[in-house]
Amino acid sequence: MNVHEIKSVHFIGVGGINMSAVAKLLISAGVRVSGSDLVASDQTEILASRGATIKIGESAENVPFDCDLVITTSAAPVLNKERMAAAERKIPEMTNFSFLGKWFENAQTILVTGTHGKSTTTAMLGLILEKAGLDPTVIVGSKVPSFPDGNLRIGKSDLFVIEGDEYARHFLEFHPQGVVLNNLELDHTDTFRNIDAVIASFHELVGQVKENGIVVVNTSDPRLSRLIETEQSALEGRGCKIIKFGSEENLVKYPLSVHGVFNRMNATGAALMAKELGASDDAIALSLKGFTGIWRRFERLAEVREASIFSDYGHHPTAVAATLAAAHEAFPGRRVVLCFQPHHRNRTRSLFLDFVTSFDAADLLVLCEIYEVAGRDEDKDKEISSHDLLEAIVRHDADRGVTRTVEYAPNPAESVKRTMEIISPKDVVIFMGAGDIDAEIRKGLI
User: Fold this and answer.
1) Is the pTM above the cut of 0.70?
2) Using CA of residue 314, residue 316, residue 318, residue 324, what is the dihedral sign?
3) Which domains does the chain show, CATH number per domain?
């Protein structure tokens, strides 16, 4: 199927951050777009305002009869009514990532991946390339304030920069010219049975880098260091250039407006790849200095009673700890209050002990009940609760001689309410999680 010849596409789960970017891309290309999602969002509203036919709710009737292709989120089960209707009518189906792999098959694709920092690094790289006049198309799993489409920038060159999602091995839909490897940890435990399975998928991705390609890799990550040692001979045999970073000595020295060691690592990966693609030092420096962050990545929302309120997408123990460290770095001497909503019962159970210690730098902690991800949990996952986390954290605090407030809330509304009740002037307050905690805090602030 030649995806560039399609006239009408239906999206299942169109409000997702990547799905909506693909829908905007096709609308700009003159393709007729329809779509559905279980809930309305800013993205569904934007798409409707641009002429897409958007339905809220799942129904076979949502799929147009003249549809050439159905693009579905991997979160939609096989028994989804719209997927079943499309299959019955023999309408071709792709995931959003498999579609992008075909749409940009002949482009110069640069993939940014890793367990953490993908969105920020992708945004940094896209902005540098834009400043350098290289006019890339960029798709990012967040919203970049200066991109008119937020999660999408449409350029006129053949340069395509995308955040490579390792979930369900989506990044293997691409054969990139360049790849940035930020870090490698166990996550998405419903897809990967163990860390070896994650490592194997990264090996496969590196094996798909095109001849004369570019691999920018953080070798301070021991798993990536071992991976690149294994792949080095094959990469060099294909004429690929390997650029390593990670030690304090070779992190970027450009001034940054965002905090945290992890952001300096993100900036380094972006800068090194941009330089290989032709960006000047001036373009890199100006872009990184002007970069103040993206949606839900330690995003400053408001000042309330002299307390600074932030939203963050962190949902993995390493990301939680790194963001708390960055908050203390950015606001030395101020109390850091964290309201955390765990995302996905399977992840919470599989990484339980890592989560317990990840909150150590929070001066006060409110734990919201776990956000359930439909269709991605096993029966044994249903037993885990944020109550269990709270009890383990209290025991951990006692073992290390720490006394602090740690509370439980049954839902986002209660967790936001309780957090706002206990804050004091000058507190740094972070509402964190990949679920609906962000939407809840924004209701009262924005």
Assistant:
1) yes
2) positive
3) 3-99 (3.40.50.720), 104-290 (3.40.1190.10), 299-445 (3.90.190.20)
